Amino acid sequence: MNCQEVQVLLHPYSDDELDLVRHVEIEEHLSGCQECSVQVKHLQSLRATVSSASLYHRAPARLRARVQLPFPKQRRSPRRAVLAAGVLFLIGVSATVGMILSRTGTSADDRFAESVVAGHVRSLQVNHLTDMPSTDRHTVKPWFRGKLDFSPQVADLTPQGYSLAGGRLDYLTDRPVAALVYYRRFHVINLFTWPAGDENEKAVLGLARQGYNIRYWQRAGMSYWVISDLNEQELDDFVRLFQEHSEVLQR
């Protein structure tokens, strides 16, 4: 296993969640890789700190006794019951209206962003990051042949600090897409791409969801969505470099 493959598995490895084969493979890698070994030590130290008994305090006996007391039963007058029912009705109406407004006010891009976040998080699970692990674009690009009805652009950005890790098939809103995986240090970048519904060009737009930065655009009849926990500047640099290399490849 190389460092990129090991980095994805360090968290489940530290939590003893891997099968025996993967565990042994990582042990062999750590025996000869100081950088990954340091990462494991940091994770183990964090786990030990969070589990420390000094962070947990037993509630005083007096507080526990008060919490366990049964609630006193109160008699409610008919008038108070009617008022309470009215309040509950208004709350229900307000909640329903709020849901309707929130749904109608959510754009298609916002809804699609939720699917992109779900795809990114899903890919970070064990053995789900790549179907074809390779740093060679001439290996990754042909792998999609016969699996999709289009050929995705695959750029080699390793000299610029964004290393290609491989590709996989994914599904967003019930359609198959190509997912290209890149690394920036220990940060995973997922780039989802598929044919757009039209030939219109759309400039790069940005979103932030659940701690992730997202960029999406449309060019040359293809849609692109990029997501990572990278900072905005580095993610914008990745998008710019990918676009520049794609233009060169298309010539």
Automatic annotation (TrEMBL):
Alphabetized Pfam families for the sequence: zf-HC2
Family annotation (InterPro entries): Anti_sigma_zinc_sf (IPR041916), Znf_put (IPR027383)
Superkingdom of the organism of origin: Bacteria
Membrane-crossing segments per the record: 81-101
Coiled coil segments of this chain: none
Ranges for domain Putative zinc-finger: 3-36
UniProt keyword terms in alphabetical order: Membrane, Transmembrane, Transmembrane helix
Protein's name in the database: Anti-sigma factor
Biological source species: Telmatocola sphagniphila
Record lineage: Bacteria, Pseudomonadati, Planctomycetota, Planctomycetia, Gemmatales
